[in-house]
Amino acid sequence: MAQIPIKRAIERVPGGMMIVPLLAGSLVATFLPGLPKFFGSFTNALFTGALPILAVFYVCMGASIDVKATPYLLKKGGALFATKVGAAILVGILLGHLLGEQPVASGLFAGLSTLAVVAAMNDTNGGLYMALMGQYGRSEDVGAYTIMSLESGPFLTMVTMGVAGLSAFPWQTLVGSILPLCAGMLLGNLDREMRAFLARAVPVMIPFFALALGAGLDLHKVWQAGLLGIGLGVAVVIVTGIPLYFADRVTGGTGVAGVAAANTAGNAAAVPALVAAANPVYEHAAQSATLLVAACVVVTAIASPVLTAWVAKRAQAREAARDATREATREASRPQNHTQARESKRLAP
């Protein structure tokens, strides 16, 4: 039977194993939203099972992490977490002085608010980050999200906005987000064969998780939000991506982990309403902010993998160039060494 190079074609697309299934899922959600439920059973589970797949992804990825790398997780995750939240705080303070609590009333930026920007910037899409790092990064970089998961929820957005609200992150949720990774690390470090067995499943799950993730993204939201929503998504990738890139480089990375975190989590779209519930001052801003953040989720889910693939390619090219330079240096030194050896023999008594 004639073979079709499907895998090769997908991999030609930057971040293809992530972005192609994600787009496929979003097309279904946009134009055939009732299709998964119509067929039900396993078909519906395939399109709605992002969290279970992510949980298994955590276990398998954890199995590939050496427990000796724990200090690295704290350093990398802490650096990315502080950089992402710090960028959101700086932008929030700036926009807070310019816009206040209310959204822009008219003009090209009508609907834009401090709340929308901060909510879009504060929360990293953990599934997207881990999938990208599973394809382009190191296992330890994937594990860094256990620290970055503290971004989830409205708490940091409320702090940034200066609103009194949730004063603590629920410990059950925090522990629950770490347990699968810890279970995988335990299995992988107790048994090398289990590590090899589970680690092989990591790249296989990426397209399945991406499909389920895309199935929750309605492309109509980008259209409804218009150019402003697209612009906000691009701004999140650039404004957070640049400092995250350098934070990753400073902590010993290639910059890939940094740009892979320059996106917006799907649950961030719920943050404006939660903030407005805590403080009615933001009730008017929350209406347009929810739509803008939802559009930002879609835009960054597309832009972030493309940028990550580009940065990863450049990092590989730099490493190849360094290897070539080292090899050329060794080659250049060999004739000189041979000449010196012959000269030493000639002068020897």
UniProtKB/TrEMBL annotation:
Membrane topology reported for the UniProt record: Multi-pass membrane protein
Assigned GO CC terms: plasma membrane
Biased composition (Basic and acidic residues): 320-333, 340-349
Region of interest (Disordered), residue spans: 320-349
Key words, A-Z: Cell membrane, Membrane, Sugar transport, Symport, Transmembrane, Transmembrane helix, Transport
Catalytic activity: 2-dehydro-3-deoxy-D-gluconate(in) + H(+)(in) = 2-dehydro-3-deoxy-D-gluconate(out) + H(+)(out)
Transmembrane feature ranges: 12-33, 45-65, 77-98, 104-121, 142-163, 169-190, 197-217, 223-247, 254-277, 289-312
Main location: membrane
GO molecular function, one term: 2-keto-3-deoxygluconate:proton symporter activity
One Pfam family it belongs to: KdgT
Compartments where found: Cell membrane
Family classification: Belongs to the KdgT transporter family.
HAMAP family the UniProt entry points to: KdgT
Function field: Catalyzes the proton-dependent uptake of 2-keto-3-deoxygluconate (KDG) into the cell.
Protein name: 2-keto-3-deoxygluconate permease
